[in-house]
Predict the 3D structure of the following.
Amino acid sequence: MGDLAIRPATAADLPAIVAMLADDPLGARRESPDDLAPYERALARLVDDPNQHVVVALREERVVGTLQLTVIPGLSRRGATRSIIEGVRIHADERGSGLGTQLIEWAVDESRRQDCQLVQLTSDATRVDAHRFYERLGFEASHVGFKLSLG
Amino acid sequence: MGDLAIRPATAADLPAIVAMLADDPLGARRESPDDLAPYERALARLVDDPNQHVVVALREERVVGTLQLTVIPGLSRRGATRSIIEGVRIHADERGSGLGTQLIEWAVDESRRQDCQLVQLTSDATRVDAHRFYERLGFEASHVGFKLSLG
């Protein structure tokens, strides 16, 4: 496969990003690839925030992956800064290619550059393959992730 | 007990906040109540960020609780904004008083005011009492929380 590039997402990437968000057992019910307006509003808010890093991975100029990295300063652990990875998606054509590893490694490297002491993420309890993937990358499944929907 | 007030944390609250962070089975190893400088630097960064809400709970003008609420815009779930609760601590004198419930309810209400569709938090797998507490408040333990230390 050709070389991989990782760069900040722009509005022009949204059709490809939203297609990946929707091409997922959990995402299929939650996304609206035919209506990009809510995604455009969200991206405009994200690009203005220096603690937000929404990136795309490109192979031969085609968007094949995405994730969101959020840098969160905090008081606990002697004022430690942590980062949170959300919205990791890999194009179906790229699964097994090592792209997921490269994207997470980018996020970990960027977290170090931002002086984070901890990288966190949560994964739905049903995504067993994803859990093995994160453990192989050195993440520890030390926490229970709770969600409350306000919908 | 007297009335409860919840307001943004200031530098003057740091000795009381850090004492609570350190008075905890996990926090005791991680905090430095005798050296507030790293906490002062972190708080200065937090108060400048409109997506960060570090609050203290006061009973008769004494700091008895704290939490950090972070508002995180995102692309997934049709551009949903979520919030993350971190650093929840209740003074030992107040445990069982309902203060934890009031603090989390404040965070949920503030998340609604900020148009969040989802409130998230992770809790160390060993904090079994905390898990029951969050489930009673309507949170669902649907995710596995992964952490990677960069220390």
User: Anything to note?
Assistant: Chain A touches chain B through 68 residues (CB under 8 Å).
